[in-house]
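Quick one - first record:
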Amino acid sequence: MKCSICGTSLPDSFNFCPHCGTKLTANLTLDDGNDKQEIKMIKIPGATFYMGDKRQNRRVTLDIFAMSQTLITQTQYFDVTGVNPSKLKGDKRPVESVNWCEAVIFCNMLSVKKNLTPCYSIGGNTELNGIDIKSPMWKHITCNFEATGYRLPTEAEWEYAARGGKNDEDTIYAGSDSIDTVAWYGENSQASTHDVATKFPNTLDLYDMSGNVAEWCWDYMEELEGKAVSNPHGPSIGNMHIKRGGSWLDDAEQCTVLFRSASAPTGKSSNLGFRVCQSGVIF
């Protein structure tokens, strides 16, 4: 047997490549039988954790939520929107070159498709795909966190999930201290995205929380609060939105579970995508 990524010859008993860290036998099925990929949601029990550097004592309490097991793929995005904006094409690769507004639009469209209540609205209107991306109306968007539909994770939810939730993995990257086992990043990606779920997941069975593409979060960028908070949603106003996780283009430091950066809501690149969440989901 040979690794499909780096070509290293391996014994048939191996389930990962020790040379590049690629997972060889994924337990994840992305095909729903109709040649399309279902979005599998993982239940994440709520708890209290210390966000960011634990020495800063930023105590955050989160309620139960669900998060997609993988980044949204190009097939999943196309199935909902009818377009694939990605520059690095591949059905099971993460969708990229999607700005924050387009990710929000996808969430509402997916909610409608699944007969769920959309989370996002502007002036009470949940049909957002007709609003120009550069319109100042986007400054007035609100999220109904009680709705049943899909939404972007808050930054706190993203970090909590990346760190293993109640399991509190305390690892540098999402699922490991060894970046090559869990992430596609600048040193092993061959300058490209890769199919989702081809590296090992963390203990919540979430894939690619480190590397492959960075992920949009709901929050505006600001310094993390230094006090105890419950279900924080970030600042109410701002010019830049949080992105987390690092990407195929980034160095190891940018792929850690603690690294924070931000982009303008209209920004897009081939190393930036997203995954989705739902509030209070009971399975």
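second record:
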Amino acid sequence: MEFLINNGSFGLLIWQVFLVLNIIFWIFCMVDVLRNSFAGNDKFIWILVLLFLPIIGSFLYFFIGRRKRLILD
């Protein structure tokens, strides 16, 4: 373990874990957008936001967009 901390590989490991978690979160948000209904062109807009702003767009969708979904029984 000491070898990892001395040559900077530990920092690289943290970035890789962050990247993998971010990709999983992005995929979750994209699937959620595609599986749900939205009013008007909101679905298309959320897909564009997620494609062009993957990190920020995922958090925006999770905190804002999920409340805008149409709940169909």
